[in-house]
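Researcher: Re-running this chain for the archive, since the previous output was lost when a drive failed. Same request as before.
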Amino acid sequence: MARLTKAQKAENNRRAQRARNTLDAYAVEVGVDESNLTDLLADLMHRSHLDCEAADFEDGLRRARMHFDAEIEGSH
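Model: Regenerated structure tokens:
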């Protein structure tokens, strides 16, 4: 695995904080629970299912994994 620059590490920390902010907002809506991440993902699947204009959830998840891998390797 490549070593990340300080700027890349900072950007990944900002990405993680955005995710934390999203989970915190979700917890305000539904209550704090150990399954909040799972429930949020399931809710996003429901949204994708209802939204005919949106890309397939599985495709989005596959692309998200590719982005994550590139970001933690410093190639994105």
